[in-house]
TrEMBL record:
Transmembrane segments: none annotated. Keywords: Membrane, Transmembrane. GO terms for cellular component: plasma membrane. Residues 185-210 are annotated as: Disordered. SUPFAM superfamilies: Immunoglobulin. Gene3D superfamilies: Immunoglobulins. InterPro entries: CD300_family_receptors, Ig-like_dom_sf, Ig-like_fold, Ig_sub, Ig_V-set. This is Immunoglobulin domain-containing protein. Its main location: membrane. Residues 60-160 form the Immunoglobulin domain. The keyword Nucleotidyltransferase does not apply. The keyword Transport does not apply.
Amino acid sequence: MISQTSSAASYIVQLTTKTRHSILEKTKNDIVQVEADLWDYYVLVHWNFLICLTMKIKAESVFTETEGGSVDISCKYPDGYQYTPMYFCRDPCSYSDVLIKSVKADTFVSEGRYTARNTLSTRSFSVTIRHLTLKDSGVYYCGVDAWGKDKLTKVKLTVSEVLRPNQNPEATEQHDASTMIKATAAPTVSTRDPVSRQNQSPHNDTKYCM
């Protein structure tokens, strides 16, 4: 619920949520930010008119992927926004931070490394980022481009470096020589061919998503 009262010098903008009640008093034309448990409200007040209300979800979804791979990010949105244009942006999510936008529902849109789709059946806006780099780590938002009150779902993406075990050529040669000596001393014991040993070498590339 939103209410406001005016006086000669200041305004009171009052927002009530299910879990928290906040009141801030600011002079006219100020931008008022009220943090609730799940939402950030940005209110522009001019005399007795509520000009704009933009909401940001504080609760974030966290995605982790390794560099070089791809990540699928899905954001749910409430009923009633199915045919509203949607976009994906990087924090602070100004106009120049928008990475891709979807205008038509149930249609894939591609822009560089980004692919987006608004799926009506699941009421979700999904974005795929390909060829990830370490610089892609950061905070993003799935945005619903509603008039006067964009709805933003916060997403945190962490791109980790690919870990490769250190290889020591001298240690590998010593291991092969030791295997040959054992095979000569005990000819009744079967040994693996070089291809099998190669397949057994300790390569442990590990890979770990509105």
